[in-house]
Prior knowledge:
- This protein is mainly alpha-helical.
- The chain has two domains: 7-54; 63-95.
- The chain has helices spanning 10-22, 27-34, 38-50, 60-94.
- The chain is elongated.
Amino acid sequence: MTKTRAKHSTAFKTKVALAAIREEDTVAALAKRFGVHPSQVHSWRRMLLDNAERAFDGGEGADSHSSEREEELLRKVGELTMERDFLSKGLGRRG
Length: 95
């Protein structure tokens, strides 16, 4: 007998985590009310608290991450271009 895992929406997770932060009820009662395991309530609460500061970044965190990724990709493209040129020259002389 296999059960499929429940896939909860981000809105649902946020609602449960906020209820846990507000301490509307005990974690066990919240878990029972929302139909999830108590450890999941703790996990979502911890995730929300850990990432709360990103809500007030003003988009700075996302931009720096994307620019780092862009620099990394451009560096890799440069390496691969140099490698291709080197190998094509070597093959041209032998052939």
